TrEMBL record:
Provenance organism: Microbacterium ureisolvens
Keywords: DNA-binding, Transcription, Transcription regulation
One Pfam family recorded for the sequence: TetR_N
Record's keyword annotation contains Transcription: yes
The HTH tetR-type domain, residue ranges: 5-65
DNA-binding region: 28-47
Domain of life of the source: Bacteria
Protein name: TetR/AcrR family transcriptional regulator
Amino acid sequence: MTRDRESRTLILDAAERLFAERGFDGTPTTAIADLAAVPKGLLFYYFPTKTDLLRALVSERLDLDPIDTSGLVARGDPARTLLNVTGRLRELQAQSAVQRVIVWREHPTHPEVREKIQNYRIQLQAIVERVLGASILHPIAARRVRAAAAAWVAIITTPALREHAGADQAAAGSADEVKDPTEPADLPALADLISAGLREPAA
Protein backbone atom coordinates (compact mmCIF):
# COMPACT_ATOMS: atom_id res chain seq x y z
CA MET A 1 0.00 0.00 0.00
CA THR A 2 2.86 2.38 0.83
CA ARG A 3 4.48 1.63 -2.53
CA ASP A 4 1.16 2.35 -4.26
CA ARG A 5 0.94 5.72 -2.55
CA GLU A 6 4.53 6.49 -3.46
CA SER A 7 3.94 5.66 -7.12
CA ARG A 8 0.82 7.80 -7.24
CA THR A 9 2.69 10.70 -5.60
CA LEU A 10 5.57 10.36 -8.07
CA ILE A 11 3.09 10.57 -10.96
CA LEU A 12 1.41 13.65 -9.50
CA ASP A 13 4.77 15.31 -8.85
CA ALA A 14 5.86 14.66 -12.41
CA ALA A 15 2.57 15.94 -13.83
CA GLU A 16 2.78 19.07 -11.69
CA ARG A 17 6.26 19.85 -12.94
CA LEU A 18 5.53 19.18 -16.60
CA PHE A 19 2.14 20.92 -16.67
CA ALA A 20 3.83 23.98 -15.18
CA GLU A 21 6.68 23.89 -17.69
CA ARG A 22 4.83 22.86 -20.87
CA GLY A 23 1.14 23.33 -20.17
CA PHE A 24 -1.52 20.63 -20.04
CA ASP A 25 -1.92 20.29 -23.82
CA GLY A 26 1.82 20.28 -24.39
CA THR A 27 2.50 17.42 -21.99
CA PRO A 28 2.08 13.83 -23.25
CA THR A 29 1.35 11.14 -20.68
CA THR A 30 4.47 9.32 -21.85
CA ALA A 31 6.60 12.22 -20.62
CA ILE A 32 4.85 12.12 -17.24
CA ALA A 33 5.42 8.39 -16.87
CA ASP A 34 9.06 8.76 -17.92
CA LEU A 35 9.72 11.56 -15.42
CA ALA A 36 7.96 9.63 -12.66
CA ALA A 37 9.96 6.51 -13.63
CA VAL A 38 6.83 4.35 -13.66
CA PRO A 39 5.29 2.19 -16.40
CA LYS A 40 2.75 4.04 -18.50
CA GLY A 41 0.20 1.37 -17.63
CA LEU A 42 0.57 2.23 -13.95
CA LEU A 43 -0.11 5.89 -14.71
CA PHE A 44 -3.35 4.91 -16.45
CA TYR A 45 -4.23 2.61 -13.56
CA TYR A 46 -4.32 5.58 -11.20
CA PHE A 47 -5.43 8.20 -13.73
CA PRO A 48 -7.36 6.78 -16.72
CA THR A 49 -7.12 10.10 -18.58
CA LYS A 50 -4.82 13.09 -18.51
CA THR A 51 -7.77 15.18 -17.34
CA ASP A 52 -8.07 12.90 -14.32
CA LEU A 53 -4.47 13.80 -13.51
CA LEU A 54 -5.21 17.51 -13.74
CA ARG A 55 -8.34 17.07 -11.63
CA ALA A 56 -6.38 15.24 -8.94
CA LEU A 57 -3.71 17.92 -8.88
CA VAL A 58 -6.09 20.81 -8.36
CA SER A 59 -8.26 18.85 -5.93
CA GLU A 60 -5.38 17.77 -3.72
CA ARG A 61 -2.86 20.57 -4.08
CA LEU A 62 -4.93 23.75 -4.23
CA ASP A 63 -5.88 23.98 -0.61
CA LEU A 64 -5.42 26.62 2.10
CA ASP A 65 -6.08 24.34 5.07
CA PRO A 66 -2.39 24.30 6.10
CA ILE A 67 -2.17 28.10 6.34
CA ASP A 68 -1.30 29.32 9.83
CA THR A 69 -2.84 32.74 10.47
CA SER A 70 -1.67 33.12 14.07
CA GLY A 71 1.20 35.48 13.22
CA LEU A 72 -0.47 37.41 10.42
CA VAL A 73 -2.63 39.85 12.36
CA ALA A 74 -1.06 43.29 12.88
CA ARG A 75 -3.40 44.79 15.44
CA GLY A 76 -4.39 48.31 14.51
CA ASP A 77 -2.81 48.00 11.05
CA PRO A 78 -5.20 46.45 8.50
CA ALA A 79 -2.91 47.28 5.58
CA ARG A 80 0.02 45.43 7.12
CA THR A 81 -2.31 42.53 7.90
CA LEU A 82 -3.34 42.29 4.24
CA LEU A 83 0.30 42.27 3.19
CA ASN A 84 1.12 39.64 5.81
CA VAL A 85 -1.60 37.34 4.50
CA THR A 86 -0.37 37.83 0.95
CA GLY A 87 3.21 37.13 1.97
CA ARG A 88 2.18 33.87 3.62
CA LEU A 89 0.11 32.94 0.58
CA ARG A 90 3.10 33.52 -1.68
CA GLU A 91 5.21 31.24 0.51
CA LEU A 92 2.67 28.48 -0.01
CA GLN A 93 2.52 29.18 -3.74
CA ALA A 94 6.29 29.04 -4.02
CA GLN A 95 6.07 25.43 -2.90
CA SER A 96 3.33 24.52 -5.38
CA ALA A 97 3.30 24.88 -9.16
CA VAL A 98 -0.41 24.05 -8.96
CA GLN A 99 -1.08 27.22 -6.98
CA ARG A 100 1.53 29.34 -8.75
CA VAL A 101 0.98 28.46 -12.41
CA ILE A 102 -1.20 25.54 -13.40
CA VAL A 103 -4.70 26.51 -12.24
CA TRP A 104 -4.42 30.01 -13.68
CA ARG A 105 -3.17 28.75 -17.03
CA GLU A 106 -5.65 25.90 -17.41
CA HIS A 107 -8.87 27.36 -16.01
CA PRO A 108 -10.11 28.83 -19.34
CA THR A 109 -10.49 25.36 -20.88
CA HIS A 110 -11.16 23.10 -17.89
CA PRO A 111 -14.44 23.60 -15.97
CA GLU A 112 -13.23 21.50 -13.04
CA VAL A 113 -10.30 23.87 -12.61
CA ARG A 114 -12.56 26.94 -12.74
CA GLU A 115 -14.77 25.39 -10.06
CA LYS A 116 -11.77 24.71 -7.84
CA ILE A 117 -10.52 28.28 -8.27
CA GLN A 118 -13.91 29.55 -7.15
CA ASN A 119 -13.74 27.38 -4.04
CA TYR A 120 -10.17 28.54 -3.45
CA ARG A 121 -11.24 32.19 -3.58
CA ILE A 122 -14.07 31.55 -1.12
CA GLN A 123 -11.64 29.83 1.23
CA LEU A 124 -9.10 32.64 0.84
CA GLN A 125 -11.69 35.35 1.42
CA ALA A 126 -12.76 33.71 4.67
CA ILE A 127 -9.14 33.76 5.85
CA VAL A 128 -8.60 37.39 4.82
CA GLU A 129 -11.87 38.43 6.42
CA ARG A 130 -10.95 36.72 9.69
CA VAL A 131 -7.47 38.21 10.08
CA LEU A 132 -8.55 41.61 8.78
CA GLY A 133 -11.36 41.77 11.33
CA ALA A 134 -8.92 40.83 14.08
CA SER A 135 -6.62 43.69 13.10
CA ILE A 136 -9.28 46.39 13.54
CA LEU A 137 -9.45 47.79 17.07
CA HIS A 138 -12.70 49.76 16.81
CA PRO A 139 -16.27 48.55 16.17
CA ILE A 140 -16.99 48.15 12.49
CA ALA A 141 -19.77 46.67 10.40
CA ALA A 142 -19.04 43.13 9.25
CA ARG A 143 -20.15 44.01 5.71
CA ARG A 144 -17.31 46.55 5.42
CA VAL A 145 -14.72 43.99 6.45
CA ARG A 146 -16.28 41.50 4.04
CA ALA A 147 -16.15 44.01 1.17
CA ALA A 148 -12.53 44.88 1.91
CA ALA A 149 -11.58 41.21 2.03
CA ALA A 150 -13.34 40.56 -1.27
CA ALA A 151 -11.51 43.47 -2.91
CA TRP A 152 -8.15 42.20 -1.69
CA VAL A 153 -8.80 38.67 -2.87
CA ALA A 154 -9.74 40.07 -6.29
CA ILE A 155 -6.44 41.93 -6.45
CA ILE A 156 -4.23 39.00 -5.52
CA THR A 157 -6.05 36.40 -7.62
CA THR A 158 -6.63 38.28 -10.86
CA PRO A 159 -6.60 35.70 -13.67
CA ALA A 160 -5.98 38.27 -16.41
CA LEU A 161 -2.73 39.31 -14.80
CA ARG A 162 -1.69 35.73 -14.28
CA GLU A 163 -2.46 34.81 -17.89
CA HIS A 164 -0.41 37.74 -19.14
CA ALA A 165 2.46 36.68 -16.92
CA GLY A 166 2.07 33.14 -18.21
CA ALA A 167 2.94 34.35 -21.70
CA ASP A 168 5.96 36.19 -20.33
CA GLN A 169 6.87 33.07 -18.41
CA ALA A 170 6.79 30.92 -21.53
CA ALA A 171 9.14 33.38 -23.22
CA ALA A 172 11.44 33.35 -20.19
CA GLY A 173 11.47 29.57 -20.26
CA SER A 174 10.96 28.86 -16.56
CA ALA A 175 7.95 28.99 -14.27
CA ASP A 176 10.18 29.48 -11.24
CA GLU A 177 11.96 32.55 -12.62
CA VAL A 178 8.85 34.70 -13.07
CA LYS A 179 7.75 37.12 -10.38
CA ASP A 180 4.22 36.66 -9.14
CA PRO A 181 1.99 38.59 -11.57
CA THR A 182 -0.53 39.51 -8.89
CA GLU A 183 2.02 41.47 -6.89
CA PRO A 184 2.36 44.85 -8.57
CA ALA A 185 5.03 47.22 -7.31
CA ASP A 186 2.37 49.32 -5.60
CA LEU A 187 0.81 46.48 -3.59
CA PRO A 188 1.39 48.35 -0.29
CA ALA A 189 -0.40 51.37 -1.76
CA LEU A 190 -3.33 49.16 -2.73
CA ALA A 191 -3.43 47.75 0.80
CA ASP A 192 -3.52 51.30 2.17
CA LEU A 193 -6.31 52.22 -0.22
CA ILE A 194 -8.48 49.27 0.77
CA SER A 195 -7.77 49.79 4.46
CA ALA A 196 -8.72 53.47 4.29
CA GLY A 197 -12.38 52.52 4.39
CA LEU A 198 -11.85 50.58 7.61
CA ARG A 199 -10.16 53.25 9.69
CA GLU A 200 -13.23 55.01 11.03
CA PRO A 201 -15.78 53.28 13.24
CA ALA A 202 -19.01 52.49 11.47
CA ALA A 203 -22.42 53.21 12.90
